[in-house]
Amino acid sequence: MRKKVSVIGAGNVGGTLAQRVAEKGYADVVLVDIIEGLPQGKGLDMLQTGPITGSDAKVIGTNSYEETANSDIVAITSGVPRKPGMSRDDLVLTNMNIVKSVTEQVVKYSPNCIIIMVANPLDAMTQLALHVSKLPRDRVFGQSGILDTARFRTFVAQELDVSVEDVHACILGGHGDTMVAIPRLTTVGGIPITELLPQETISKIVDRTVKGGGEIVSLLKTGSAFYAPAAATAQMIESVLLDKKRILPCAVYLDGEYGIKGVVVGVPAKLGKNGIEQVIELKLTPEESRALRKSAEAVEELVRVMRLG
Length: 309
Ligand code: APR
Hints:
The structure is a single chain. The mean pLDDT is 97. Helix 1 (12-24) packs parallel to helix 2, helix 1 (12-24) packs across helix 9 and helix 5 packs across helix 10 (286-306). By secondary structure, the protein is an alpha/beta fold. The chain folds into 2 domains: 3-142, NAD(P)-binding Rossmann-like Domain (Rossmann fold), CATH 3.40.50.720; 145-306, L-2-Hydroxyisocaproate Dehydrogenase, Chain A, domain 2, CATH 3.90.110.10. It has 10 helices and 14 strands. The strands form 4 sheets. Strands 3-2-1-4-5-6 form a 6-stranded parallel sheet, sandwiched between helices. The protein has a 3-stranded antiparallel sheet with strand order 7-10-11, with helices on one face. It binds adenosine-5-diphosphoribose (APR). Adenosine-5-diphosphoribose (APR) is lined by residues 8-14, 32-35, 77-79, 81-82, 95, 98, 101-102, 118-120, 223-224, 226, 229.
């Protein structure tokens, strides 16, 4: 039997993600939205790509959660995207209400699912879903690090005129202005970029990466990035469904790792059929540690705003 993946929110990120998953053919997809007709229409359209892409995955769109019952994975993309001039944190109160009610419905019908959060502000929304679902931290985590590192990797590859495939990047911390890029662990064919690029260039690339989402928001004007966020989420889904045990940067609730307890931030983790199977703890320099703690504090501040109690 094929696995089942539900995608909540049939907007830009949700629609693109559902299509990516459906195309692979290893899971049936249920697309949910509050707008009547939107998930149904997109679902039917996606289903009709099957004969072309060679996928037998069933895709349905719905406004109710009954069809999501017994999902293996649920990706939550329902939420408002930011507008030019807004930070991801500005979305907290609006998206909090959406993510809370969505999570309640999701676990009602799929009490053992794995939840991958995509709505922003990412780390706070992941922590909210963890709180509301009462699932263990291995089953509720967020997508942000794959996107942030993909941006970093893109800019490094452009700068050096090399294949993106050979560039691997390390970024820790929250998905926002306080994210912590680690250039000494960012490599091209195994060579740290600190050996290949002057510090000034690295700093410019890091800065562009940190502001990468904002750059796209200011170009689009009416929404935020969705192709790369959807591709990143699809990669996480694949690692879980195929039990690939990839080491990917994920937003995870830390329980003492990195000296941080009780808050969701981005760290490298092993992703397999059980969700987060291991949090990889890197040895950081004092400066990196300080930056990571600062990033965790920024997430804590948002969590306080939500008054999770
Ligand atoms: N239940 C289900 N769907 C909802 C709900 C809800 N309670 N509230 C809103 N939605 C739906 C909207 O109807 C819309 O179709 O979520 C969808 C969001 O889609 P877009 O507006 O296109 O936003 P998108 O670009 O997909 O971003 C979604 O992901 O990357 C983050 O910051 C981004 O938080 C934002 C989220």
